[in-house]
Each structure stands twice: as C-alpha cells, then as structure tokens.
Amino acid sequence: MSHMNTPGSLRAALVLGIIGAVFAVFGGLCAAACATAVEVASAGTVDTSIVYVLAFGGAVVSIIGAALCVGKPIPGAVMMLLGAICSFILVVVAFDIMSLFAGILLALATILAFVGAKSK
After folding, report:
1. What are 79-102's pLDDT values in tens digits?
2. 3-state secondary structure (DSSP) of residue 98
3. Which residues of 100-112 are buried (b: 16+ CB within 10 A; e: fewer)?
C-alpha cells in the first residue's frame, strides 16, 4: 500500500500513537522512579513490580501498535488501546501526570485508527 493512499486518520493515528508512546516511556520512567522510592522508604514491604510491568509493557505495546496502524489498523488500534489502559491505570496507581497525557493521546490515536479502518 502506498503512503499516499493512506487515509488521513491513519496517518494522524500513527503520529499521535508515536507521540503518546514517547510520553508513555517518560511517564513510565517517572512512575518507576516513584515506585522505587516508595519501595525503599517502606523497607521493601511494598511490591511495586506491577508499576514496572504497566509502565514499560504499555509503552512497548503502544509503539508497536502505532507502527502497525497504517498497514493493519485494527490490530494496531487494539494494541494502542491496551497501552492507553496501562497508562490510565498508572495514573491511578502511581499518580503520574505524564501517563495521563500518554493515555489521552493513545486513546485519541485508537479512535482515529478505528475510524481509518472503516474508511480503508
């Protein structure tokens, strides 16, 4: 498929997905640093491994989903949706504002990818 024949919503989903994934990486670093501080302060009695899984797993899934959304919009949109859900969970668990921005951008990219899949 030629890049010129790609619907505009899929290109927008690609761009928003990549930007959201970058925010997710930085939000994940912030959440991981905060989780490490909590774990150290609590003398190891708090398990913070879920923060690491959500932060970096969600970012990786988001990047892959953004890359897929031009060629295969439905699987790409589902992957970006998973990344957005991980980001929104991090907002609740780690009180991370960067993850809020990432979740919003990834949710918008998901909507655009689903709309682009219908027009394709």
Report:
1. 999 999 999 998 888 888 888 999
2. helix
3. bbbbbbbbbbbbb
Task: Please work out, in degrees rounded to the nearest 5, the angle formed at the alpha carbon of residue 107 by the alpha carbons of 99 and 52.
Answer: 35
- DSSP annotation of 4 reads G
pLDDT in tens, 17-63: 999 999 999 988 888 888 888 878 877 676 778 888 888 899 999 99
The CA-atom distances, in angstroms, between 26 and each of 7, 56, 96 are: 29, 10, 10
Count the Cβ atoms, other than its own, within 10 Å of residue 16.
Answer: 23
Q: Helix, strand, or coil here: 104? A: helix
Tokens of 30: 């912030």
Please report, for residues 9, 15, 57, 108, the alpha-carbon distance to residue 54 in angstroms, rounded to integers and kept in the order given.
Answer: 27, 22, 5, 19
- pTM confidence score: 0.87
Cα–Cα distance list, 27 to 5, 42, 79, 96, 106 (Å): 34, 22, 18, 7, 13
